Every structure is written in C-alpha cells, then in structure tokens.
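User: quick one, sequence for these tokens?
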C-alpha cells in the first residue's frame, strides 16, 4: 500500500506541471485601442537640436520658450510652437537668409526631449501624476516610471483612456498578460491617461 502511495505521489509530481498551464491565469480580452497617432509638433519646454551644416561653432541645443519661441543666434525669436522639425528647419533657414547671415544654409532639426507632451498615471501606483511622453513609450514603461504598482493594484484590469477625434476610448489592459509574455505591450499616445484601480477582495 505504501508503495502504491509512493508511486501515486511521483505520478502527481510529474503530471502537475502539465496541468498548470491549462488552469493558468484568466485575462480580460485583448484591448481595442486605436493605433497611437505620432505627433512631432513641439511646444514650450521641448528641447531641440539644431545643426547648421558648416557652422560648427553655433550652439546645438535649444529649449523652446514659454511663449513658444526659439532664440537662435543672429536672428529674431522664431515662433516654433505647433511646428514639426522640418517646419522649424525651414523657419530657421529663412530667418538666416533674411538676416543675411548665410546665403543658402542647410539646417537640420531633431527633437531631443518632448517635455511639453505628457501622459497621466493615476490610482494604485507608487508615484501617480504626469509623466513626460516619449515617442514609442509603452504601458509597462509608463507604469515603471511611476514607481510600479502598489500591493492593492488590480494589475489584470488597467484602464487606458485615449483621446480620439470624436471623444475618448477607454480600454481595459491586462499588465499581467504583458509581463507573462502572453500579449504584447501597449504603445501609448501623447495625452493618454492610465488609471490603476484597487483590487476587489
């Protein structure tokens, strides 16, 4: 009898790992979120890199002023808020030509920091509040930047609220499914709100 019990115990140890995946976690359906819209327009506080080919002595990094202008050497302040990098390069080039500083300058602009773009993380995270948004930012990256979840967080049902032309879309996302490699991470959009509710006991 004892030998039979021993065999059954060994069999159970061998079979249990095969049964666990079948009775694993239950996740909500995949979220239905519209694809994030890429917005390269700059605003106050953003930092841009400006390179004028052949003019290595000019400063390269510039922070956009509170009034949306950019102070560039040899020209008057340039209104750049609401422009993308290509449009900013054109404005700087035109101003340099108008000021007769250069005849046909080649200007390249790259955004180094979108400090004007934010996402909100609220609820059961260690450090709720606004976070700077970066292109390609994901849900897990945002929660990590907010200090990760509190012990009370419902990590299987995290709300992502996204503004769309006709209002807003509210989707439930399972961060558990992402961290368990069951589903891909969710790419965020500027202005998204992440709401982490408390678990129901």
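Assistant:
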């Amino acid at each position: 009898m004892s030998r039979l019990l021993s065999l059954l115990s060994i069999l159970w140890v061998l079979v249990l790992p095969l049964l666990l995946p079948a009775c694993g976690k239950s996740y909500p359906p995949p979220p239905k979120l519209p694809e994030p819209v890429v917005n390269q327009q700059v605003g106050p506080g953003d930092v841009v890199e400006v390179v004028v080919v052949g003019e290595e002595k000019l400063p390269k990094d510039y922070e956009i002023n509170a009034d949306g202008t950019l102070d560039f050497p040899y020209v008057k302040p340039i209104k750049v808020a609401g422009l993308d990098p290509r449009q900013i390069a054109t404005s700087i080039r035109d101003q340099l030509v108008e000021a007769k500083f250069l005849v046909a300058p080649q200007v390249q602009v790259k955004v180094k920091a979108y400090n004007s773009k934010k996402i909100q993380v609220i609820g059961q995270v260690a450090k709720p509040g606004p976070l700077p948004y970066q292109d390609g930012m994901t849900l897990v990256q945002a929660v990590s930047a907010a200090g990760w979840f509190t012990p009370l967080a419902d990590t299987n049902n995290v709300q992502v609220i996204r503004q769309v032309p006709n209002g807003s879309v509210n989707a439930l996302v399972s961060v558990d499914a992402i961290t368990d490699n069951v589903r891909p991470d969710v790419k965020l959009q500027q202005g998204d709100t992440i709401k982490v509710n408390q678990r129901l006991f």
